[in-house]
Amino acid sequence: MYRINANFLKYPGAYLFLQVAKKREAFAAAHPDRRIISLGVGDVTLPLAPAVVSAMEAAVREMGRRETFRGYPPTPGYPFLKEKILAGDFAPYGVHLEPEEIFINDGAKGDLGNLGDILSGDDVIAVCNPTYPAYVDSNVVYGRCGEYDAGKGQWSRVIYLPCVKENGFVPELPAERPDVLYLCFPNNPTGAAITRAQLQRFVDYALENGCLIVYDAAYEGFIESPDVPHTVYECAGAKRCAIEVRSFSKTAGFTGCRLGYMAIPMELEADGVKLNALWRQRLAVKSNGVPYVIQRGGEAVYSPEGRAQTRAQIAYYKKNAAAIRDGLRQAGYEAFGGTDSPYVWLRTPGGRSAWEFFDLLLERANVVGTPGSGFGPSGEGYFRLTGFGTWEDTAEALDRIRSL
Ligand code: MLT
Hints:
alpha/beta; binds D-malate; 12 helices; single chain; four-stranded antiparallel sheet; 17 strands
């Protein structure tokens, strides 16, 4: 009899956002008269920028003519998009990368998980606590996380770095050495940002201890504070220890289009092998690249019109997030984030657990958020709301929460 990958059986429950969706659906079925407002999963609500739509329309027409039709894309991505990425996302911060160091993908989540293919099954990972759940969940599949301890809400082989109010939601350096260190800044879920000096400490630690940093900068577009780095490569030595993961989902509204990229510098080497070469091989084996039409849409994000339009979208979401944070504070809540980030992280009132507060909010305010404990044990007693709703829904949700 064939066997399955039994690591899948180790998960204690469904993926966090599926649990949230299931609860929401059950409530909606039981109360069809209520209008539920979702500020839960970080999914965008504004339509694609007009510049992106025009570029995709033109690309579709090219695909419909014999002379301009294209078959398989280059697996690591089209040069036209890579050039725009290098000029738009790195050069303004004094960072030089080569096109060969950029790998276009169908969004951050997939390749964050796929990276596990090129790392040893014995590697020990460290994550922020709380953290975006995909880092740990995708490593469970490879057997890298050990066993789940339901009492602690932790995996036995994962190193957790607490991010709490006392440290400004930026972790201390690990007390035990991990092999792979996942950092996401601006942070999901806490909305905290990291300063250049703080990030440099992690880079120095990784260089000294032979760790790989996987730096998830999916929310880079939301940065406004001058001391917050836009890329890990602003830190000295980062090209020797860090992979950076980017996404068009939140910064250009591509959650439904799927586009992102990874930077894997040539300097990154382990066991005498370049990670860039290893990843290229993995891609050749498992991928045929990202659709031409989507990559043309991504290219348009970097045009002057695309820039202006997507920046306006980000400003809209940031206005929502700031309104949530400030409104909650006025109502007596402790609320964090929402400055360099679309996320607001609040303390649950009255000592309620995160899931208790989730239920209360759903039942009494008909608002869906995300329980902090779903992001890790240090998220207990916290709750996440997103700025990705419409302005009208955000204002109404806030009113409903305030009148609780
Ligand atoms: C979130 O809500 O944390 C994100 O939307 C999840 C994701 O980006 O996959």
